[in-house]
Amino acid sequence: MPTKVDWMSAGKIDTLCTRARKMAPLTLGRKAPYLCLTDTTEQRWVNYYDLPQEFVVIIFWDPHCGHCKKELPDIYKAYQEKLKPMGIEVFAVAKAVEDKLFDDWKKFIRENKLDWINVGLTPTVFSEAKKDARKYIPEAHHHREPQLCRCMGRVQHAEGLLGGWRAQDRGQEPERGSDRRPR
User: Fold this and answer.
1) Is residue 8 situated within a structural domain?
2) DSSP 36-98
3) Are 77 and 111 in contact (CB under 8 A)?
4) Residue 125 in domain
5) Tally of domains in the chain
6) What pLDDT was estimated at residue 28?
7) What CATH number does the domain containing 126 carry?
8) What pLDDT is attached to residue 117?
9) Where does residue 105 rank: exposed (0-12), middle (13-18), buried (19+ CB within 10 A)?
10) Is 161 a member of any domain?
């Protein structure tokens, strides 16, 4: 295959193009993959596609990442001062698959008063998914259409998913119990 690039081998170009095709859905301006995760209570599911905002910034972070903990307060300041007044929401996704990560995640949110949307892969969801991942595969989903969110084995009306998550992230969380397990 003739190319206009003479400084890179054809194999390297093929590898680069393959990688670009895989990453294309994750680039700026593209619709994000379907995301429906729990908030810090592990009781409320938040479906990214059901958010009313036209524009949403998705942040993936780890509660034990020093760089994340350094940058998130600055990003939050920009959110409060610039993004939120423009009607732009933040959907912050954390990896909280172990109890220590889970506790540190909630603590960091409270200490930094991060009142944007906080969701994560939590210990309960992670352990249940290892047992039976099929119950975590969503049925149908369509961008911005009202519908049921059948994720994590539960059916909840999407409009009820967002209620109260901000207060829970800033305040005391209920005790973790077995009633939040997927059904």
Assistant:
1) no
2) EEE-TTSS-EEEGGG---SEEEEEEE-TT-HHHHHHHHHHHHHIIIIIGGGTEEEEEEEE--S
3) no
4) yes
5) 1
6) 67
7) 3.40.30
8) 96
9) buried
10) yes
| DSSP H or E segment with residue 131 | helix 123-131
**CA–CA gap between residue 171 and residue 105 (Å, rounded):** 13
- The pLDDT of residue 2 is 53
CA–CA separation, 86 vs 67, rounded Å? 27
Which secondary structure element, helix H or strand E, spans residue 111, and what is its range?
helix 99-112
> What would the mean pLDDT of 39-45 be, rounded to a whole number?
91
Q: Is 27's pLDDT higher than 80?
A: no
Give this prediction's pTM: 0.63
**Residues spanned by the domain of 131:** 33-173
Single out the residue of 34, 35, 56, 37 nearest to residue 45, CA to CA: 37
> What residue type is 89 in one-letter code?
E
Residue 20 lies in a domain: no
**Token match 């009142």: residue?**
115
Distance of CA 50 to the CA centre of its chain: 13
Q: What is the SS3 assignment for 135-183?
A: HHCCCCCCCCCCCEEEECCEEEEHHHCCCCHHHHHHCCCCCCCHHHCCC
N-term to C-term CA, the chain: 53
